[in-house]
Design a protein that fits this description.
Elements: E1 2-7, H1 13-29, E2 33-36, H2 43-52, E3 54-57, E4 68-71, H3 78-86, E5 90-93, H4 97-111, E6 115-119, H5 125-131, E7 138-141, H6 144-148, E8 158-162, H7 168-181, H8 195-208, E9 213-217, H9 223-234, E10 238-242, E11 258-263, H10 269-283, E12 286-291, H11 303-306, H12 317-324
Parallel strand pairs: 1-11, 1-12, 2-3, 2-4, 4-5, 6-7, 6-8, 9-10, 9-11
Length: 325
C-alpha cells in the first residue's frame, strides 16, 4: 500500500500561536490558567493542556475573580471582554489575527450602517464571537437555500463576511446566490477564509484523484477538518475523519492501494505520525510526501506574553479595555 502525506497539513499559524500562548502562560504565571472555550478544536491538544493545569470554561462566570483567563484562537464577543473586566480578570488574547480581521470588518460595516450577512455554522465559537461584535446588525446564513428566505431592511446597504474555516466552494456558492439576489451587496476587501483552510482544501482536491481512500486527522468539532473529509467525498473518494490511530478500521482498506493522509489545522503532527506508523506496520505501506503549496506564515504571541518576566503580573482586563476605547 502507498501512503501520500499531503502538505501542507496540520497546525496553521493561528493554532501555533494560540498553543504557544497557553504553554507560555502556564509556564510564566503557573496553573491554573483558565481558557474561554477550547484553545483549539482538538481532543488531544485540550486533554494535554488539561493535564498541565489549564481549565477550559464555557462562561466567564466560571472563572474566579482576579484569575488569569486566555481567549482561544476562535475569538470572543465584546460582551465576554466586558464580563472579564467586571470580574477584574487578567486576560491573554490568543485570538487568531485572521479572526480578528473579520471582527474588525463586522464593526466597520455596522458603523457604516450596513446590515451584515455572516456565512458560517451556527453555534461555532468563531461565529458566536463575530456575531457578538454587531448583534443588532448581523444575521447568519448557513446554506445556499437560506439566501432565498433572507429579509434585509435595505438591499442597498448590505455586506457579507465569512467564517474563516469554511469550505471555499460552499462559501463561493452562497456568495454567488447573495450577489444574484442582492446585486449591491459588498464583501470584505480581502477573502475572509484563511490561507491555511484554503491550502489544506486545495491539497485534498489535488491529491484525492490519486487515492482510493482519504484519511483526515482531526476532531469532529473541528470545522476545517470536517470540510476536508467532505471535499474528498465530493471528489468521489471514500474519506474518514479520525481523531487518532484507534479510530482506524481495518475494513476500510479492502482493495485499497493508495491512501492520502492529511490533517486539519488543529491536529498535532505527532498524532498524524502515529496514524502513519500504524498503517506502515499493518500494511507494509510505503510513504511519500506531496507538497502542493508551501507555507511560511507565523504570528507573534499576544502582547501580554512577549516580554513579561515569568513572575510579572498581567494588567487586568479593565485597564486594557480603557486603552482600546
Amino acid at each position: 500500500m502507498r501512503i501520500i502525506l499531503a502538505e501542507p497539513r496540520g497546525f496553521c499559524a493561528g493554532v501555533n500561536m494560540a498553543i504557544e500562548s497557553l504553554r507560555q502562560a502556564l509556564r510564566r504565571f503557573g496553573p491554573p490558567v483558565y481558557v474561554y472555550h477550547e484553545i483549539v478544536h482538538n481532543r488531544w491538544v485540550v486533554e494535554r493542556f488539561r493535564q498541565e493545569g489549564a481549565v477550559f470554561v464555557g462562561a466567564v462566570e466560571d472563572v474566579p475573580e482576579g484569575a488569569t483567563l486566555l481567549y482561544s484562537a476562535h475569538g470572543v464577543a465584546p460582551a465576554v471582554r466586558s464580563a472579564a473586566a467586571a470580574r477584574r480578570l487578567r486576560t491573554i488574547d490568543a485570538t487568531c489575527p485572521l479572526v480578528t480581521k473579520v471582527h474588525r470588518e463586522a464593526v466597520r460595516f455596522a458603523r457604516d450602517g450596513y446590515t451584515i450577512v455572516l456565512i458560517g455554522h451556527a453555534g461555532h465559537d468563531e461565529v458566536l464571537g463575530t456575531m457578538g461584535e454587531a448583534p443588532g446588525a448581523i444575521g447568519l446564513v448557513q446554506r445556499p437555500d437560506d439566501v432565498e428566505r433572507l429579509e434585509v431592511p435595505d438591499p442597498q446597504r448590505l455586506a457579507y463576511l465569512t467564517q474563516t474555516t469554511l469550505s471555499v466552494d460552499d462559501a463561493a456558492e452562497i456568495i454567488a446566490r447573495l450577489q444574484q439576489r442582492f446585486p449591491a451587496i459588498v464583501g470584505p476587501p480581502r477573502d475572509d477564509i484563511c490561507y491555511a483552510t484554503q491550502n489544506r482544501q486545495h491539497a485534498v482536491r489535488m491529491l484525492a484523484g490519486a487515492a482510493d481512500l482519504v484519511l483526515v486527522v482531526g476532531s469532529r468539532n473541528s470545522s476545517n477538518s470536517l470540510r476536508l473529509a467532505e471535499i474528498a467525498r465530493g471528489a468521489g473518494v471514500a474519506a474518514h475523519l479520525i481523531d487518532g490511530p484507534d479510530d482506524i478500521q481495518p475494513a476500510w482498506f479492502a482493495g485499497v492501494e493508495t491512501v492520502v493522509v492529511t490533517a486539519g489545522a488543529s491536529a498535532p503532527e505527532d498524532v498524524v505520525a502515529e496514524c502513519v506508523a500504524m498503517l506502515r506496520a499493518r500494511f507494509a505501506a510505503v510513504v511519500e510526501t506531496r507538497c502542493v503549496r508551501e507555507e511560511r506564515v507565523s504570528f507573534a504571541l499576544p502582547e501580554a506574553l512577549r516580554d513579561a518576566p515569568a513572575d510579572a503580573p498581567q494588567r487586568p482586563e479593565a485597564e486594557m479595555a480603557k486603552e482600546r476605547q
